[in-house]
Structure formats: C-alpha cells, structure tokens
C-alpha cells in the first residue's frame, strides 16, 4: 500500500520537471529571436541611410538646375524685350528720315554663347544623373564629386554672369564638402579655393543698376535740351541786338559824322566769336532728339549685355551729336557733357579671371581616387 501511494507523487514531480524544462526552452528561443532581429536592424540601417543621402543629393542638384534654368529664361526675355523696343524705335524714325543703323551683332553673339553654354550644362547634368543612377559611390568620393560640380557652377557664374557673390557662396560650399569628405589629399585644392576667395572678395564690380538709372535720367533730359535755332532766327536776333536806330539832333558833330551814323544804321556789321558747326532747319529738332535718345538706349542695351565697345561707341556718338546740335554753353548743356564724359570713363565689364587652376586640381584629385566597379 505504501508503494502505491508514493507512485502518484513521483509522477507529479516528473511532470513538473518536464514543464519547467519546456518553459526554459521557450524563453531561450525568444531571446535568440530578439538577438537576430536586432542584428538585422543594425545591418539594414546604414543601407537605408545611404539611400536617403543619395536621394537628397539628387534633389539638391535638380533644385540648382531649375534655378539656373529660370535665370537663363529671364535673361532671354529681357534681351527679347530690348530688341523689340529698338526695332519699334527704328521703324518710327524710318518714317521721317534715314534711320540710324543699330549693330545688334553683339546681342546675337551673346545669345548664341548663352545657348551653347546652356547646352553644355544640360549635357553635363545628364551625365551626372546617369552616373547617379548607374553606380553607387562611397561618401568620401561623393563629397569630392559634389565639390567639383559646385566649382564648375561657380566658374560659369564668374565667366557668363560676372556674379561674384554667387561664386563666393559656391566656393565656400565646395570647400565645406571637401572638408567633410575626410580625404587627406584635398589640401592643395582647398588652398587654391582659399586663394580664389581672397581674390574675389577684393574685387569690386561697377554698379550697373546705378549706371542704368543715370542713363534713364539722361534720356528724360533729352526732351528739354536747347537745340540750335534756325539760321534765320539767329540772324534776326543778332541784328535786333546789334543794330541801333538813327539819332539826329541839333548837336550833331558834322555832316561827316552824320553820314557815318546813317550808314551804320543801314549796314549791320557783326563778328562771330566762333563759327557755328551747324544750323538746324525748322522742324528738325524733334528728329535730332529722337536720334540722341536712340543712341542712349543703345548704350543701355550695351550695359545689359556687358558690351564695352558698343557702350563706348554709343556714348561717343551721342556726345558728338550733342556738341554739334545742342546749346552747350548753358548750365544744363554743361551738365549733360560732364555726365557723358563720366560714362565714357566707365568699364562696365571688367575682366574676371576664372578658377581654372582649382578646377584642374580637383579633376586630378578625382582621377587619382579609386573608382568603384559599375
């Protein structure tokens, strides 16, 4: 009887031991599964971060391309508007007299140059986008490529637009990218960038907006300038001022003196201080003013296109016409001459050297870096 009563107790203990062992096995399996999940997350996170970085770089490049495209569109619209205005003025003058020829070859040459630069830039962008889609490059190499792209944009801003502020900003961004690349071979490139930044910060450009406003003010004054009167009006005015009436009185010195006075009242003797260069026919003043306004507007167009030769030629011709047909002895005439002389001393398109040395150094750096297989 004692053995039969102990048997159920033994069975209960065995079942409890088996249950404890099964619980411990389940706990170990859960811990193992958690470790595996953590390992998978740690491995996947860098991959996700790399994909996000590549997407951000592509978005940044596309934003810069859109901004450059908008600037090119605005420049073309401005050139088109100025060309239409010049054409309208030429047509209005052609109805009255022989038109003043306008040389627009500089505008056409600038338009073709901008179009060619835009095509080259679009081709470069297409190549960069193809490289982004075809291969993955390490972060260090990406930073160097980004710096090269920023430097090329800065060089184009200097050469095409003479935009020093944008070029300085792009150079600083390129220097920051080189610093973040962690590459020890970027010292020479960064040193060249520092030299370019010092040179650009010490460079001053002419105030084209202020010059344009001064030209507009001079255009407005052309309507109120005094032109030379007709030959007839000059002669009558001079005769009225110089002729004297006959004065006969009881105190005349004698017959001879009376005769001299009588002849002096009939014949008018006048001596010109200087020979006038031109006498205007009646009704010719409006045409002269329109021609001088057209020359000043041509100078404005040259200012917008940064054409030094056309700017100087237009102002020189305008000054020559003003001296020939306008009254230069008055205060307003002297002010116009002084303003034109100041314009003739301006350099509206000072030569800006590019950053070719920096571009060459960073190109050598990219060529020396190991390329990842594609």
Shape: rod-shaped
Determine the fraction of residues in helical runs and give it as a percent range.
Answer: over 70%
Strand segment count: 0
Biggest sheet descriptor? none
Describe this structure in words.
The protein is rod-shaped, with a radius of gyration of 43 Å. With 374 residues, it is mainly alpha-helical. It is built from twelve helices and no strands.
What's this model, at a glance?
By secondary structure, the protein is mostly helical. It has twelve helices and no strands.
From the structure above, extract its key features.
374 residues, mainly alpha, 12 helices
Secondary-structure map with pairings?
Blueprint: H1 2-94, H2 105-134, H3 139-161, H4 164-181, H5 187-201, H6 208-221, H7 231-242, H8 255-266, H9 285-305, H10 308-325, H11 331-344, H12 356-368
